[in-house]
Amino acid sequence: xxxxxxxxxxxRDGFPLEVQVSGPEDAPALLLLQGQxxxxxxxxxxxxxxxPDFRTIxxxxxxxxxxxxxxxxxxxxxxxxxxxxxxxxxxxxxAAIYGTSMGGRISQMLALNHPERVSALVLGCTSPGGPHAxxxxxxxxxxxxxxxxxxxxxxxxxxxxxxxxxxSAEYSKMLGDDxxxxxxxxxxxxxxxxxxxxxRLPEISAPTLxxxxxxxxxxxxxxxxxxxxxxxxxxLLILPDGRHGFFEEFAEVVTPAVVxxxxxxxxxx
Length: 269
Hints:
8 helices, AB_hydrolase_fold, 8-stranded mixed sheet, AB_hydrolase_1
């Protein structure tokens, strides 16, 4: 199903946000929140698999895709406010939320600060942030900071996918928006690094599914177990051998599990 471009809307402070919608207009709303330094294209190869069950909504984060301007102070909480502005513009009083990586951190803040807007929550390969989070191995962080160009892209690719994944790095939609400036990329890095929802996680009231690959070196699987312990009534799904992009590489298992969880959660609400 073709993604419909809603076009640019204005956030509450006037910042232009590029928004995309696809799927049946009468289906439940599903907001998809992508990882750090990525536009809505992160979801291009996945969103079709959750239709026609859901009307999928994406937007380009500030500093990516078609959402460009003076960035100012950013946080996972401020990105969650942008998400609310998008839902308001589309007339979506409530939505299911599926967030991966930094998108999962933003999803936490959305569920905490606007619980009435979130019907169900899926958190993939993400973290509570702060001192209680399980840090990635030091050598991974050092390599990501040191490597440039093709070497950086290939290293990132190997963090996302197993050697069995046959799609080459040049076709991946998840390795960063290459139109971003150094300042925009740095701003996103700070947003992700400064997230800390540990204290408030027990306040999350939406039905929650937490998913992670057990071979994720970008964001260790221990974070999924922490989220599961902290979020009341949450469910946990660990994918054997999954890396940071497990939800794409193992989509034939993951996506039906997501759709089943969200459908059941909406039926029971």
